[in-house]
Amino acid sequence: MRTRLQYVGFSVLSILVGGLCLLGCTKEEKQASLEIVDSEFSIRKDSDLSYVIDASGTIANTGDVDVKNVEVTGRCESCGDQIINATWFVSDVDKMPNQIDVINYLAAGAEEEFEFEEVAFYSAQTGSEVPEGLPDGLKVVIKSHEIVE
């Protein structure tokens, strides 16, 4: 009789724990919502024979949760990946620290400014080639972020 009560008690306890686990797992996971509010690209002469594009702007946390370690960088979709004289190109290696801005903490509803360098490069063979303007397809992208618990 005692083992039967233990078995029934164990079964009821297992069902309760399982139900609580299911309720905990179905809890709505918080989502971050980040948005680039403003961005600006500018050409900077890097040396006598090269130019680079730098970026700056503002990012907003439009979600309900705070975020940390937000990595913002740039991309040029119309730039090639080979160094060709008088043509905008991008590097095919991982981004260097100066090509990424990390925002340590961004509260829900807050905005923060960012800036980084070297979105794209322009090489001039003689120094007489000057870029006529910004290339098409320049974008600021949010590379990664973490939700604050």
Description:
With 149 residues, this protein is α+β, with helices and mostly antiparallel strands. The protein is 16% helix and 46% strand. It has a four-stranded antiparallel sheet, with no helix packed on it. The longest helix is centred in the N-terminal third of the chain and has 24 residues, at 2-25. The protein is elongated and about 75 Å long. The chain starts with a helix and ends with a strand.
The helical percent reads 10-25%
From the spread of the alpha carbons, the general shape counts as: elongated
Question: Can you give the mean pLDDT?
Answer: 85
User: N-to-C SSE series?
Assistant: HEEEEEEE
| Unreliable segments of 5+ consecutive residues | none
Number of strands: 7
* Number of separate helices: 1
- State Rg: 26 Å
> How are the strands of the biggest sheet laid out side by side?
1-2-6-4
Q: Which short descriptors sum up this protein?
A:
single chain; 149 residues; alpha+beta; four-stranded antiparallel sheet; three-stranded antiparallel sheet; 7 strands; 16% helix
In short:
The protein is α+β, with helices and mostly antiparallel strands. It contains one helix and seven strands, in the order αβββββββ.
Topology, element by element:
Blueprint: H1 2-25, E1 34-47, E2 50-61, E3 67-76, E4 88-89, E5 100-106, E6 111-123, E7 138-147
Antiparallel strand pairs: 1-2, 2-6, 3-5, 3-7, 4-6
